[in-house]
Amino acid sequence: MPLAEKTEMTETMTNDFLGQHETGVLSLAESDEPYAIPISYGFDSSEQTFFMRLVSTPESEKRQYLASSPRARLVVYEESDSGATYESVVAVGSLEEIQPEELTVDHIEQYGDAKRPLFEIWGNSKQDLNIRLYKLDPEKLSGRRTEIDRDET
Q1: For the structural domain made of 18-75+94-140, what CATH number should be given?
Q2: What local confidence, expressed as pLDDT, does residue 118 receive?
Q3: pTM
C-alpha cells in the first residue's frame, strides 16, 4: 500500500497555489440545507481576500442562498496527472456583497482576475440575470499538500 505524506501548506505556498488557479467550489449553507457551485475567483494575496462575480437567474437556488447572507466555504484543489500529488486550500467565512458605488480600482483589478469559466453558460436573456460582486475575507484559510510515494510497500 502506498504511503502518503501530508503537509500543511505555508502562507506563501497557499498564496502561490491560489494565485495559480482561478476556479473552485463555493459551498453555502442555510439552516440544514447545503448548496455548492463551481465558481471563478480573483485572489489578492496581500490581503488574502477572494473576489467573485456571481450570476443568478430570478428563480435560482443561488439567488435564494445569497439573499440569506450565508456562511461560505471555498475549496480550491488540484490533483497531479500521475495522481501522486494532491493539493487543496479551504477558505471559511462570510460573503460580503460589494455595491457598485463602493468599487475601488483595486476591486476592479481583482474582479478582472475572476475569469468567466465555460460552465457559466446561461439560457436566460441578459436582463434576467442578476450579476453581483462579492468578496470573501476568510476567517480561516488553510492548505494541505499530500504526496503519495507509490514505490513504498
Answers
A1: 2.30.110.10
A2: 42
A3: 0.80
Are 141 and 9 in contact by the 8 Å Cβ rule? The answer is: no
Q: Report the first-to-last Cα separation within the chain, whole angstroms.
A: 5
Residue 149, pLDDT score: 74
- Least Cα distance to 151 among 84, 70, 80, 104 occurs for 84
CA distances from 44 to 23, 34, 108, 141, 148 (A): 14, 27, 12, 13, 31
**Higher-scoring residue by pLDDT: 56, 136:** 136
Checking DSSP bridges between strand 85-98 and strand 42-44, what pairing results, if any?
unpaired
Residues in the chain: 153
Q: H/E/C letters for each residue in the chain?
A: CCEEEEEECCHHHHHHHHHHCCEEEEEEEECCEEEEEEEECEEECCCCEEEEEEEECCCCHHHHHHHCCCEEEEEEEEECCCCCEEEEEEEEEEEEEECHHHCCHHHHHHHHHCCCCCCCCCCCCHHHCEEEEEEECCCEEEEEEEEEECCCC
Q: How far is 104 from 50, CA to CA, in rounded Å?
A: 15
